[in-house]
Write a structure and sequence with these properties.
Length: 169
């Protein structure tokens, strides 16, 4: 046991100059260390503010996770049911609108009138001149283009019905 105390005293005397140098360095560097501690505290301030909302982050994170899991389960289960019951949606039939039917009917009338006027006319000046025919055919198209085919509700006719059931009241 005596030898351990001898070893301790030898090491303490050997490390004495080193401890004096370290203490002197701490004294000289004290202002830098003090300033550095404030800089670190300022840098960590946003994290301290965010740490106050830790409960909210946990709540939102768990809600997000549960939502993702439940949404994925719902998506996969519905896709399995759709494939098992063969409920896949067929592409919808894009029917013609009332305005397009009217425009096509009017175009046919114009073409029929044009052909009738050509067949009834015996004059060669109407039949032989191709530029006159194109110009006259373009006139009907221009009239249709001016009116234009409107999309949506503006191109559809609103049909009104008379309600006779209120006569008794």
């Amino acid at each position: 046991m005596a030898w351990t105390s001898v070893v301790k005293s030898i090491f303490s005397y050997l490390l004495l100059p080193l401890s004096l140098v370290l203490r002197l360095a701490l004294i000289v560097l004290a202002p830098v260390i003090y300033l550095g501690s404030y800089i670190v505290a300022g840098a960590l301030l946003p994290l301290k503010v965010l740490a106050k909302f830790e409960t909210i982050y946990i709540y939102v994170g768990v809600a997000l996770f549960v939502g993702l899991v439940m949404g994925s389960i719902l998506h996969f289960s519905s896709s399995v049911f759709i494939s098992l019951l063969d409920l896949s949606a067929s592409p919808e039939f894009q029917g013609r609108t009332a305005a397009s039917v009217r425009a096509a009917r009017e175009q046919k009338k114009l073409e029929g009138a044009w052909e009738a006027s050509l067949s009834s006319s015996k004059s060669d000046r109407w039949r032989g001149d191709a530029t006159t025919l194109k110009r006259q055919a373009g006139f009907g198209d221009g009239a249709l283009r001016k009116r234009g085919e409107r999309k949506g509700l503006l191109g559809q006719t609103i049909l009104e019905e008379d309600d006779d059931s209120e006569d008794g009241f």
